[in-house]
């Protein structure tokens, strides 16, 4: 008998099959399309969505001395040592032309209230990019250091990452250490 089961088993009608498909579709839709009331008022940045933030106890973190100076950061200079970091251009999958830095290598200088602060790399790795926007808009460090005001992107080698990860603080640990909310 078409559409039937074994003897004594009720037949499943087309209406029930369609209803199951509608329920499955609604469940799938609810998984794929979130309810607007459940979304944050400000969407997360690409950094927050795709990366885990780690902090070294030193560096230009939200509690850095330069950010606490009156007026905050007023200038950023990537011309330190023998080269201008802002002139460096990394290309390709293999990151050609990337400069390799140790943790104590100077990355840039920031000026605040007439004082100059040297920002160090803090991790061993390859410099992939510096934020050229800081040259014209140094106040981005004051207003959104963890978003548009980032200084640079450093990529540690996988073998080095395993060594340094334990010496860095997670975002939550950093907030606890600095007494931030």
TrEMBL record:
GO terms for cellular component: nucleus. It comes from the Eukaryota. Pfam families: GCV_H (PF01597). InterPro entries: Abitram, GCV_H/Fam206, Single_hybrid_motif. PANTHER family: PROTEIN ABITRAM (PTHR13651). Belongs to the ABITRAM family. This is Protein Abitram. It comes from Musa troglodytarum (fe'i banana).
